[in-house]
Amino acid sequence: MKPLISILALIVASLPATALAWAPDPGQQRLLVGGKTVSEVSAADDGAGLIHAAIDIPAPPKVVWSVMNDCRFIRKLITTAVDCRILQGDAGSGGWDVRETVTKGSFFIPTIHNIYRSDYQPYSLIRFRKAGGDLRVEEGEWRLEALNGGSGTRVIYVNLVAANILAPASLVREGMRKDTAKVLVNLRRESLAVAR
C-alpha cells in the first residue's frame, strides 16, 4: 500500500488535466453576466474539497490582479485573515513567490497557517500549491479573462484543498462554498474601489 503522501501527490499531479480545465457552463455564465457569483464545492479523495468558482468584475484585469496580489488587501478580501507576508520570491520579475497567510479560527475551525508557492503569468494566471503550513492539500489556480475589450474581468478560481477540521465533511464543504463566494464579492468591491 502506498503511503498517504504518495497518494496525495498523485491526486495533485492529476489536477491540472482535470479540475483546472473547469470553466463556467452557459447557465453559470448568465449568472455571472447578471452580477452573481458561482461557487461550488464537490467532494474529492481523502476528505478534500474541490472548489470551482467565478465572478465578473467591471474593472480591467491589471486592476483586479493588483488587488489580488497585494498583502495589504488580505483582511478586506478574507475577513478572518490576520496576516499575509511574502517569505521569498522573484521580486524583480514577479514570476513567483512563497507566501504565508494566517486565518483565525472559530469553534470548529482552527487557526490556519497557510504557506503556498504561486507562479505568475501577469494579469492572466496564478498557479499555486502547498509549500508548508497546516493544510494537508492545496493546489489550484486563479484565471483572469478580459471581458468587454479589457474593461472587465472574469475571475475563475479552482482549488483542491483539505485541512484537518473536526466537523462533518459536508459542513466543511458548505463553509468553503460560502467563504469562497464572499471572497469573490470582496474582490469585486475592492477592485472597483481601486479602479475609481
Jot down its keywords:
single chain; 196 residues; alpha+beta; Alpha-D-Glucose-1,6-Bisphosphate, Chain A, domain 4; 8-stranded antiparallel β-sheet; 5 helices
In short:
This protein is α+β, with helices and mostly antiparallel strands.
Describe this structure in words.
This protein has helices at 4-18, 26-33, 61-68, 74-77, 169-195, and strands at 38-43, 49-57, 81-89, 96-103, 112-121, 125-133, 137-147, 152-162. By secondary structure, the chain is an alpha+beta fold. The chain has a single domain, classed as Alpha-D-Glucose-1,6-Bisphosphate, Chain A, domain 4, CATH 3.30.530.20. The chain has an 8-stranded antiparallel beta sheet with strand order 1-2-8-7-6-5-4-3, sandwiched between helices. β7 (137-147) and β8 form a beta hairpin. α3 (61-68) packs across α5. It is globular. The N and C termini lie far apart (57 Å).
How would you describe the shape? globular
Q: Strand pairing plus helix content: what structural class? A: alpha+beta
> By CATH's scheme, which homologous superfamily applies?
START domain
CATH architecture: 2-Layer Sandwich
CATH top level class name: Alpha Beta
Alpha-carbon Rg, integer: 16 Å
Low-confidence stretches: 1-18
Helical segment tally?
Answer: 5
Strand content: 35-45%
Count of structural domains: 1
What average pLDDT do the residues reach?
Answer: 88
Q: Give the fraction of residues assigned to helices.
A: 25-40%
The N- to C-terminal Cα distance equals 57 Å
Order of helices and strands: HHEEHHEEEEEEH
Question: How many beta-strand segments?
Answer: 8
Largest sheet: 8 strands, antiparallel
